[in-house]
Amino acid sequence: AEPRDLVTATQLKNVYYFHARHHYARYGTYAGQPACLLILDLSFQQYSNFRFKSAEIEIEFEDADNVGLNPHEVDIDTTFQPRVLAFEPQEFNGPVTSVEGKNAVKLDVPIQVPGGFVGITPGVSRSKDFVRDGWFKIHGVIKEDLPSMIHWTIREDKIRKNGIHSEVSVAIIVSYFPRHKFAARVRVSADVFFPFLRPMCGKKDDPIYFDPALMRDKPSLWVKEVEGSSNSVPGMHLGALDHLPLKRFTRIDGSGGTFLK
Q1: How far is residue 59's CA from residue 120's CA, in Å, rounded to a whole number?
Q2: Whole-angstrom Cα distance, residue 91 to residue 137?
Q3: Residue 158 has what DSSP assignment?
Q4: DSSP β-ladder status, 33-46 and 167-175
Q5: Each residue of 84-107: pLDDT tens digit?
Q6: H-type helices in 96-234, by residue range?
Q7: Contacts of 60 (CB under 8 A, 6+ apart)
């Protein structure tokens, strides 16, 4: 079946709201094998002066037949488990914020006194110039022996302390096997600038399911491609995915920062 639009969400009234939405799925090939491009849009909305200091996003892909199986009770057959082939952002640093200042350093002088005791006498105070840098950062890594899970961390600029970006997207190209459904579990957590408040969503939500055979025949929603050349249908087969500009799907490429990978 076609994946639902709203993947997961959570909120605390008058404090915060954040969610992940499924953008669209595009089938094709990557490095010569069947592959699917997925894009998730993440929004972090603040209702108060409390800001989002950081966030974590985790996406885990699995064979739909294995959903709900306990690996401690049964042997999991991973023959048809999807593998992550490419993703963005891998590592991104926002514009650098620098602040200059001075640190006061007090130097105490030890002295030898009669009887062998060492005493301390006040010395002099000096100041030392310093420069501190900060930047918004996103870093994603593939976890597990089978490359089927991605984990992103997002951190605010520690100098500006103005929270993380309110709108971010992640793009993933994952392998699939014809005639086999696959699923994705999405979990999102965030640090709200409030003591002991770290909400999470997605842990108890059902995964979203993808059926390559069915989705190719469902032109239910039209979206404009990044290249701007034509309209495409979510879930339709569009050929080679190798040269798609994944960084441009992330919505951070125009923020003045730098992709490090």
Answers
A1: 58
A2: 8
A3: T
A4: antiparallel
A5: 999 999 999 988 887 777 666 555
A6: 212-215
A7: 148, 149, 184, 185
